Amino acid sequence: MVVNFIKSNLSIFKEVMETIDKVKQFNIAFDVKMSEKPGLDECSQYVEWKLKEQAAVLNEIAKTFHLLAQYKGDTNKAFLRMQLMTEELSEVCQAMANNDIKNLAQELADLRYVCDGTVLVYGLANCFEKVFNEVHRANMSKLDENGKPVKNAAGRVVKSNLFKPVNMDGLVC
After folding, report:
1. Do 128 and 116 contact (CB within 8 A), yes or no?
2. Long-range CB pairs of 30-39, under 8 A, 24+ apart, other chains included
């Protein structure tokens, strides 16, 4: 039974790893620091306070979406999906503020679960891999002709002259 489940869902597992590999490729190209081992950087009291503050703001936004969903009834899935995503993002902020790597892993998985659920709710499952690949292509086109990120005076990555925005033409959704 488990073997049949894995066989029937192998393409989904493969797709998840491919998206992670693409994000890793982007992070390497754009000098985004990554870690092989789980762990959080100790944050200053100010950063901890700001993360908790933003978690509270996101939580209030989630409550607003919840009220709107109740007011409009369950026919408006947009309010419910936004409530779920902001609620999970709030919990990600809280886990970071608490420097809790195990909780952060759980909350990131919850957030991805809700995002993937939103893809399914809106019927985008059959085209989402193509959309993701197009977004990845556009992000990678920010590199210059030497394959290096272009940065402004503040060190922020900016689009190179080779940048080509996401093109949804031809992607049937």
Report:
1. no
2. 30/142, 30/143, 30/149, 30/157, 31/149, 38/101, 38/105, 39/101
Query: DSSP readout, 67-136?
Result: HHHHHH-TT-HHHHHHHHHHHHHHHHHHHHHTT-HHHHHHHHHHHHHHHHHHHHHTT-TTTHHHHHHHHH
Q: Please give the pLDDT value at position 101.
A: 95
Q: Which residues contact 36 (CB under 8 A, 6 or more apart)?
A: none
Alpha carbon of 65 to those of 61, 69, 116: distances in Å?
Answer: 6, 6, 19
**Rounded Cα distance, 109 and 91, in Å:** 11
pTM of model > 0.90 = no
Q: Which of 166, 162, 156, 132 is nearest to 30 (CA)?
A: 156
* Tokens (6 digits) for 47: 């950063």
Q: Bridge partners of 158? A: 150
Residue ranges, the chain, pLDDT below 50: 13
- CB atoms closer than 10 angstroms to residue 116: 14
